[in-house]
Amino acid sequence: MQLHDTLDARPTRGDAAPSSTARFQPWLRRPLAALALFLGAAGPVVAADDYIYVVQAGDSPWNITTRYLKSIDHWPQLQQYNRIISPEAIPPGTQLRIPVGWLRSRGRPVRITDLQGQVEVLNRGVAQMLERGMTIVEGSLLRTGANGSFTLQLPDGSRSLVGPDTELRLGAARQVAASGGGQIKMELLRGYVENKVTDKRRSGGRFVIDTPSGVTAVRGTRFRVTEAGQVLRTETLEGEVELRNRAGRRIMKAGTGISAPAGQPPGAAQALLPAPRLDALPERIDRLPVSLELPAVAGAVRYRTQFAPDASFSVIESDRLASQPQARAPAELPDGEHRIRVRAIAENGLEGFDAERSIVIDARPEPPFPSQPAGGSVVTDDAPSFRWAKVADATRYHFQLATDAGFQQRVAEQDGLAEAQFTLPDGLAPGAYFWRVAVTTAAEGRGPFSDPQGFRRPPPGPQAEPPRLGVGGLELRWRASGADHRYQVQLSTDPAFATPEHDLQTDGPALSMDAPAPGVHHVRIRSLEPGNPPGPWGKPQQIEIPRDYWKTLLLVLPVLFLVL
Q1: Is the pLDDT assigned to residue 24 strictly greater than 50?
Q2: DSSP state of 56
Q3: What is the pLDDT of residue 547?
Q4: Which of 65, 362, 404, 461 could make an SS bond with 538 (beta carbons 3.0 to 4.6 A apart)?
Q5: Distance from the first to the final alpha carbon of the chain
Q6: β-strand 141-144 against 119-123: which pairing, if any?
Q7: What architecture is the 20-103 domain classified under in CATH?
Q8: Nearest 5 degrees, angle CA 109-CA 115-CA 121?
Q9: What segment(s) does the record annotate as region Disordered (predicted)?
Q10: Rounded to an integer, what distance in angstroms lies between the CA atom of residue 489 and that of residue 373?
């Protein structure tokens, strides 16, 4: 797609001043002035984007042409275009209209003011990696990688932020001789570019982005352009933007955008979605990668999150999309203060207004990985031990134990631990607990705490009352530990309960069973709470089952009578 008669700055017949033999002769002025007056009556319609030149004392069509226009051939056209009757007596302060295409300009270098990631420039078939501070010239092709971005500082003070996965050619970067205004043309082959353009309405300047799907032209505004899959998307944040292709033309005012497929007339401008609210985001992030919930924006189907080192957003450290109202960023973001920018994306692909604020990342050194006790576990030890992964360059560890996940009610805290473990010196009461640990290194200082690991310290297991041994057998009773609890009872002649002779379950805090074999037995009980692991075993008790000597005597007496 080409934009004709806008940025063609090539001189047609010499930028140098004409020789004395080619000077305008005074005796020709009046006839040509009359001819210009006659032609001016049927002159062209004045274009809205003409450069306005304010006449100074001594100015004439001739010397204006020799100083500022591309060719001496333009002087009669200039006189005709402005319907000048007396070319030798133009009053100072008169405003003359000059088509932008007539203005003389010269190429100016473009500087890379900031750069992030992988960016290369291809000039005359030679590729090289871009560096901050380098200058590029007209015709250069620039490419960014998946994490690459850079800012172009243009001759007129305009700035363009080129995003990741973008291919852009610098078509023209010229400065108008008459005003110093810039005439900029870029070819966006694919990707994304965001522009802040200086006001060109009175300078004869022009800023044009040409894409395979259409052309975007401005004269002072802030706007974004994306070329993706033969679709041109333009979003106007400030000022006014013209979008055109072979099928039509549209003007977009601030706060609107257009998604224009190649070969189709641009549709009506659509209102951009409002900026998401970021006031609920934390001031500090201590976990990477970033995934933060956002209030949904009505009409949004996706959200774009960008991070930058500072408010200038001259480079993009991270550019992530999310299908849910979330702000996302990768784990590679460095610690320090950053600028976060989020915008909502409509179903037509147009991206809305930016929400922006400062945010601090303080995620390093990364916390150790907790190992024991694991999250959600049941700890039966009176004084449990805590263990975590060892960090190679750790100088010390910081341990915390609390009864709440926010660690407002801490019951134990120990800083300056040299080893990756800690054992509570005193017993721990039954209840729910949370623990976490942080590490300090010489290179990065103290890092954030690990995610809280919750565990439960259950009440001690039931303790059997003194057993009752009767004619019906053995009867055991104990205190109930919960209304819906069941109980497991084990009896074993082995105090270690390696292979208990009896392993029974009951719905209540009592058990009746046949009397076990005579001798010494050990009994232990634990509660079974629905939905939770079994509780700890109560303290084992020892039961002695006496021998029934009367039964033995009744068996022996008949034998004795026979003998006698």
Answers
A1: no
A2: P
A3: 78
A4: 461
A5: 132
A6: antiparallel
A7: Roll (3.10)
A8: 55
A9: 1-22, 445-468
A10: 27
Looking at CATH, the fold of the domain delimited by 370-457 is given as: Immunoglobulin-like (2.60.40)
| Positions of E strands within 36-181 | 51-54, 95-98, 105-107, 110-116, 119-123, 126-129, 135-136, 141-144, 149-153, 159-162, 167-176
pLDDT at 254 over 50: yes
Name the band, by pLDDT with cuts 50, 70 and 90, for residue 265.
very high
CA angle 62, 95, 198 (to 5 degrees): 105
Which DSSP string do the residues of 532-547 spell out, in sequence order?
Answer: S---PPPPPEEEEE--
Question: Residue 464 gets which letter from DSSP?
Answer: B
% of residues, the chain, pLDDT over 70: 87
Question: What are residue 78's DSSP bridge partners?
Answer: none
Report pLDDT for 14.
Answer: 34
Please give the structure tokens belonging to residue 77.
Answer: 């056209």
CATH topology of domain 472-549: Immunoglobulin-like (2.60.40)
Q: What value, to the nearest 5°, has the Cα angle with vertex 115 and ends 109 and 117?
A: 135
* pLDDT recorded at residue 49: 65
Reported as a pLDDT band with limits 50, 70 and 90, residue 373 is very high
Strand, helix or coil at 79? helix
Between β-strands 377-378 and 453-457, what pairing exists: parallel, antiparallel or unpaired? parallel
- Containing 510, the helix (H) or strand (E) segment is strand 510-513
Both tokens of 327, joined, read 């702000």
Give the pairing of strands 410-417 and 394-402: antiparallel
Mean pLDDT for the stretch of residues 474-492: 92
Q: Which residue has the tokens 């709470």?
A: 529
| pLDDT 10s digits, 174-193 | 988 888 888 899 999 999 99
Handedness of CA 376, 380, 386, 389 (dihedral sign): negative
How far apart CA 65 and CA 72 sit, in angstroms, is 6
The CATH label, of 3.40.190.150, 3.60.110.10, 2.60.40.10, 3.40.350.10, for the domain at 284-361 is 2.60.40.10
52-85: per-residue pLDDT in tens?
Answer: 899 999 999 999 999 999 999 999 999 999 999 9
Distance of CA 62 to the CA centre of its chain: 58
Q: What is the pTM of this model?
A: 0.74
Domain boundaries, the chain: 20-103, 106-271, 284-361, 370-457, 472-549
